[in-house]
Each structure stands twice: as structure tokens, then as C-alpha cells.
Automatic annotation (TrEMBL):
Regions crossing the membrane: 12-29, 49-69, 81-103, 109-130, 142-162, 174-192, 204-224, 262-282, 294-315, 327-348, 354-377
Keyword Ubl conjugation: no
Source species of the chain: Undibacterium parvum
Name of the protein this chain belongs to: NnrS family protein
Keywords: Membrane, Transmembrane, Transmembrane helix
Keyword check for Transmembrane helix: yes
Amino acid sequence: MKRLALAPHRLYFFLGALAVLFLFAWWSFSLTVSNASLMQAANSIPLHAIVMPLGIFPLFILGFTFTAGPRWLAVNASDRYFLITGIAYFSGIVLVITGASLAPIMESIGFGMMLCAWLSATWRWAALLGESTITEKQHPTVLLGAMIGGALALSAALAWTLGWSEAWMVARQLTFFCFLLPIFLTVCHRMLPFFTGGVLKPYLVWRPFWLLWFWLSACTTVAVAGVFSWHLLEACAASAMALSFLYTSWRWGLQSSFQNRLLAMLHMSFAWLAVFFALHAATAFGYRLGSASMHALGLGFMATMLVAFVTRVSYGHSGRPLLAGNGIWAIYLCLHLAAMLRVLASILVSPMLITASAIVWLVLVACWVAIILPIYLKPRVDGQAG
């Protein structure tokens, strides 16, 4: 276990993998208990919509940010502050889920712990950003802004557990459109063309900053329009985003990425963004699609991108070849099918398909965690430090 303290990504990815398994197991149990009736899990649905994104992704985000981030900023970040931060955030997740069954106040304490841990990490990142003397800080600065959005989302989630019912929608909109999606888009904007250029030859790197600013502005527009029910504005912004991601996927080389499985995994996940925003626009225009768009985002894009990105980073920082074996590749492809199943379940309003999707996701993430988790407990295979 001492190896978890050697580098931020080891601890954060380890705890993140446990959180993924824990949360998917909780939700699958909530759906299947007592004759597998969705209605009997109705009380857990609002919590599910908040705690799943806030529980699954942030630990992995911190692992990547404090591993790659100091290199981006050309600063030293060798302290072990991350041990307390990571353990506190994970403990908060456990308290939130435990409190859902035992005592509501435990939910509030759990979200409070997650908020405090996140504020600590945000403050740390701001300090590193201030120490850096490099001139190009656009990506790190956007990350800081999104991390502040994360603090606001966690604050709204805490307020919701304390009785402010309107805070639920605020928390959901902030979580996806002012926190997680901006971080995913920023990292994709910086890293996806970079990774692609390392594999495909010849390859012209295209990542203009106006594109990133457009994405971030549209995310903010969708978030605000969603909170105030400005559906026409929301639909127009989502439609524009869908078209932009169709073009970007083509421009970044989706069609050529299958020369390398790990690279193809990143591009295939990115392609879900066009699907998500198309579904989101359709919903805003008045089509009854249930939660199809949000599951296209949370499962289709974010969860599959998480598996693709964390696998690549874990292999690279453990000295392993950047190649996806048959097991990882099969799991990853099945995750896409499971995401499609969940989107279809929302469109058809099928409790049976929703439960089946949850169980399939649990099985698949358990297989992935079984492959990836031991990496963080072992030394690098190339003998290097870290």
C-alpha cells in the first residue's frame, strides 16, 4: 500500500477505481432490490443523478491534473498533500451512499467532506498555477475555472441535502456543464491531437483556442438556459455544439485512429459528444427522450473516455507498452454497447432495460477495475520511479 503514496495518480486512480465499483454496485442494488422494481428505487434517483458524476470522475481528474499538470506548468509538486485529499473525498462518497439508507445528515456530512477536499485540491492547483512562470497557461487556467465550478456544484449538492430542493437542478447543471464537461473538453483539446500526432504519420495538429472558447461558452449557455428553462436558446446552443463535434472528430482523425486501439478508444469516446448534443437539442426542442441525452453524456462520452484515458495514462506511467490487449479492447467496446442500451432504455422508458443496463455496467467496470487496479500497487515495470 505504500506505493500509493509514490505519485498522485496512483492514489487517486486507485480510490477512483474503488469509487466506480462502489457506486455502480450501489445503483445496481437499488434497481434490483425487491423484485427489480424501478419505482422502489425512485427515492434514490435524484441522488443517483448527482452522486454518480460527482463520485466517479473527480478522483480521476485529480489524478491526471496533479500528475500531468505540474509538467504543463514546469513546476515542482513533490509533496504528499494528495494523501489526505484523496482519502477525504473518497470517505465523503461512502458517507453519502451510507447516509441514503441510514440517516440524511450523513449525506450532508459526506458532501461536506467532498467539498472540503475539493476546495483543498483547487487551492493547491491555484498555487501551482501562480508559481509557474510559463507564458502559455490557457489550459491550466481553464482547469482552475472548471475546478471552481466543481466547488460550486458540490456546494449546491450540499444545499440540496440540507433541504433546498431547487438546488438539485443547479447542482446537476453545474456538475455537467460548468465542471466535468469543461475539464473533459480542455483535456481533449490539449491531449487528443497530441496523442494522435504521436501515432499517425503524417498528422497536422489542429487545436485552435477559438474552438475551446466556443465550447466553453456554449457549455455555460446550455447550463444557464437549462436552469431558467430557456429551451430555444438551449436547443440552438446544443445544435451548434453537435455540429462542431462532428467536424472536430473528422478533423482530428477518427477515421484513421483505428491503427492503434488505445488511440481509437479516445476518438470513439469523443465521437459521443455529437450524439449527446444532438439528443440534448432534440429534448430542448420538445421531443420526449427522457434522460437519454444525459446518459449519452455521462456513460457514452464521459465513462468510456474515462476508461480509455485512465488506461492509457496508467500504462504509460507504469512503464507498460501503450497497447490495448484483447481484454481491455473487448471491455471497452462492450461499454459502448451498454451505453447505447441505457440511452435506448430512456427513450423507451423501459425499467427492465434500465436495470439490465446497470447490471451490465457493473460487470464491465468490475472487469476493468480487476485489470487496472493492481497496476497502482506494483512498481513500474521499467524500473523507473513514480
